[in-house]
Write a structure and sequence with these properties.
With about 170 residues, the protein is an alpha+beta fold. The protein is about 20% helix and about 30% strand. The chain has one domain. It is built from four helices and seven strands. Strands 2-3-4-5-6 form a five-stranded mixed sheet. It has a two-stranded antiparallel sheet with strand order 1-7. The protein is elongated and about 100 Å long.
Length: about 170
């Protein structure tokens, strides 16, 4: 997927672009290509983004540390504002205070939007926080305890007495 020039999207008749995805996303390791679609709508002062996609990925279980395959399903939407980035004065050594309203994504109205980067970010955000191979995963199972060494008394016992003890165990009482 190529980066889109935002003014070209605004000049489209319906101001919408649907991108069919069937590719490996760079730096996001999957067993199968990411398949789905990304819909980009230009709303004048914002881009309205929506994506539905899926892929098979390999994860490592948090409990037992075994690898397992997981079907990652993405159903995401986001609005990115189109506004010129503010020019901030040089604030070296000064404390920077951020207004909560500034904590939103924005792009320059005459800039570019890269759907591949956005899809990569959304796929990473959709990874499960708790990676478990099964809901009843027991975790790492310690190896069984080795059999204790036979006591000295047992080692000194004549093996013929052991045979007699086995015969005694077989007899009904």
């Amino acid at each position: 997927m190529q980066p889109l020039h935002i003014p070209q999207l605004a000049n489209r008749q319906d101001r919408t672009l649907e991108v069919i995805v069937d590719t490996m996303v760079p730096e996001f390791e999957t067993l199968t290509p990411v398949r789905g679609k990304v819909i980009i709508k230009h709303g004048g002062t914002f881009l309205d983004l929506a994506a539905q996609a899926e892929a098979i990925i390999t994860l490592k279980c948090d409990r037992c540390l075994q690898q397992y395959n997981h079907r990652l399903v993405l159903d995401a939407s986001e609005i990115i504002w189109l506004e010129e980035p503010p020019t901030e004065p040089d604030r070296r050594g000064m404390e920077i205070r951020t207004d909560p309203e500034d904590l939103v994504d924005s792009l320059a109205p005459d800039g570019h939007f890269d759907p591949t980067v956005w899809l990569y970010e959304q796929l990473n955000l959709s990874l499960p926080l708790r990676q478990l191979c099964a809901t009843d995963c027991a975790g790492i199972i310690p190896p069984p305890e080795p059999d204790p060494e036979p006591s000295e008394a047992q080692q000194l016992m004549d093996r013929r007495w052991g045979i007699l003890a086995n015969l005694k165990d077989r007899l009904p009482e």
